[in-house]
Amino acid sequence: MSDQIEKGREFEKKADKMLNGWGFFGSKFKYAGDLDQAGSVYVKLADCHLKQNEPASAYADTAHSYKKTSTKACIANLEQALSIFMEIGRLSMAARYCKQAISYYNKASDIFQGEEVTTSANQCKQKIAQFLAQLEQFQKAIEVYEEIAKQSLNNNLLKYGVRGHLLNAGICQLCKGDGNTRGE
C-alpha cells in the first residue's frame, strides 16, 4: 500500500514539470486507497483542463475520489462538473451528475433529519428541489418544497421562510403547465 502511495507522489512530482497526465497519477493514489490525495490531484487535473476547455470530467473524477472521505467536497465538485457540462451544452452528462447530487443531498438530509438539525436538512432539501426542477421533474420538486414549508411552520426561526418555499412550489406548478394550479 505504501509503495503505491510513494509511486503516486513520484508521479505527482513528474507531473508538476510536465503539466499533463494528472488523471493517471490521481488513479495511482486512488488504487493505493489515499482518496484525499487522489482528489487533490484530480483538482490539479481540472485546473489543467480549464486551459483545455475540458474540466468537467476532471471535476466528476474528483467527486468520485472524495465520495467516501468528504461528502462536502464530493458535492461541491459534482456541482462544478454539472455547471460546466450545462455551459458547454452536454446536457445528458449534466443530468447524470445532477441525479447523483440529488442522491447525496438526500442522504445528507436524512442524516440531518435523524439528528434533528432541521435547518441543515431543509437546506439539503432545497438543493434537491432545485435539481429536480432543473431536471424538469416539477411534481417532485413541488412536493419537496411543500414538505420544507410544512416542517418550517413548526420552527419559530424557519417559519418566516415558508412564503419563499411556497413561492418556489408555485413557480414549479406553473412550469409544469398542466393548467391545474388550484390543486383540484
Describe the fold and architecture.
Helix 1 (2-18) runs antiparallel to helix 2, helix 4 runs antiparallel to helix 5 and helix 6 (91-114) packs antiparallel against helix 7. The chain has a domain at 1-89: Serine Threonine Protein Phosphatase 5, Tetratricopeptide repeat (Alpha Horseshoe), CATH 1.25.40. The longest helix has 24 residues, at 91-114. The chain has nine helices and no strands. It is an all-alpha fold and 184 residues long.
Q: For the terminal residues, how far apart are their CA atoms?
A: 62 Å
Question: For the CA atoms, what is the radius of gyration?
Answer: 20 Å
Order of helices and strands: HHHHHHHHH
CATH fold node name of the domain at 1-89: Serine Threonine Protein Phosphatase 5, Tetratricopeptide repeat
Helix content: over 70%
Secondary structure category? mainly alpha
Silhouette: elongated
Major beta sheet, specifics?
Answer: none
For the record, the CATH class of the domain at 1-89 is: Mainly Alpha
What's the total count of β strands? 0
Spans of 5+ residues with little confidence (pLDDT < 50)?
A: 20-26
CATH architecture of the domain at 1-89: Alpha Horseshoe
SSE blueprint:
Blueprint: H1 2-18, H2 22-32, H3 35-52, H4 56-66, H5 71-87, H6 91-114, H7 118-134, H8 138-153, H9 162-176
